[in-house]
Structure formats: C-alpha cells, structure tokens
Amino acid sequence: MKLHSTETQQYQTVSSYDDTGVELNAIRYEQSLLVLPETPPVPWPVTSFDALTSEHFDQIDATRPDVVILGTGARQRFVHPKLTAVLTARRIGVECMDNQAACRTYNILMAEGRKVALALILEPKPA
Questions:
Q1: What is the pLDDT along the chain (127 residues), one digit of tens a residue?
Q2: CA 35 to CA 67: how far, in whole Å?
Q3: Which residues pair with 28 in a beta bridge?
Q4: Starting from the edge strand earliest in sequence, which strands make up the sheet with 14-17, in order?
Q5: CB neighbours of 4 closer than 8 A, spacing ≥ 6?
Q6: Which among 22, 43, 48, 75 could bridge 17 via Cys, Cβ 3.0 to 4.6 Å?
Q7: Are residues 37 and 49 in contact, defined by beta-carbon separation less than 8 angstroms?
Q8: Sign of dihedral through CA atoms 69, 72, 78, 80?
Q9: Going by C-beta distance under 8 Å and a sequence separation of 6 or more, which residues neighbour residue 35?
C-alpha cells in the first residue's frame, strides 16, 4: 500500500509497505528493522516473532524511545512481558500489532513529534 507524502520527509517515514517489505522515504527494506524518526533505520537481527529475545529489546532500549510500536508480522501477536521487562521498567510503552497497522501507527505518532520506535519483524522470503 502506498501512503501519501506529508511534510515529515526529513524524518524516517514509511512511504509504502506490502507483505514482503517496507519502504522508508522510498528506499525498500526486506529485513527486520528498527526505525526512529531522526536517525537512519538499522537492521534488527530478528528472523521471526518466535525468535525474539530480551536482547532484542535491549537494543531498542538503547535508543531511549517513549513508545515502541512492535510490528509482529502478517498478524498481530503479543510478546511475553518478560521479554520487554527492560522497557516497562523504564516506563516505555510497547504496543504490538501486525506490520501494516504498525507502519500506519508509527507514521501518525512520528508526525505528532513523538519519540517513537518502530520495531518491525520482516521474515525472510522462503527459498
């Protein structure tokens, strides 16, 4: 789905998404990413929802967001609270949703000036 451009182009904005990847400012990515508004996206070494560990959330914590939007893939799934303990201890909210909803929500919160992190799980294409 293509999203309309806004006046937030100086930030990392989701410009489109589909079942296999996401575009940020018209650059396509097909691997899991950690996205914050004011910094380039970084690879997030998560191959699937079931592979999530607390270390993955330590990487997010290092970015110091106010809220984390966790894109869990094609369907919404909920992460176990022990994995996000480092974030909840610092009063950082974690919202789980499917990737499409996560992309839309990230864009809204980013456009509002929130310090939001998009942690997006993009599973590798089957060979």
A1: 444 444 445 789 999 999 889 999 999 999 999 999 999 999 999 999 999 999 999 999 999 999 999 999 999 999 999 999 999 999 999 999 999 999 999 999 999 999 999 999 998 877 6
A2: 12
A3: 23
A4: 14-17, 22-24, 27-29
A5: none
A6: 22
A7: no
A8: negative
A9: 12, 14, 24, 41, 106, 117, 118, 119, 120
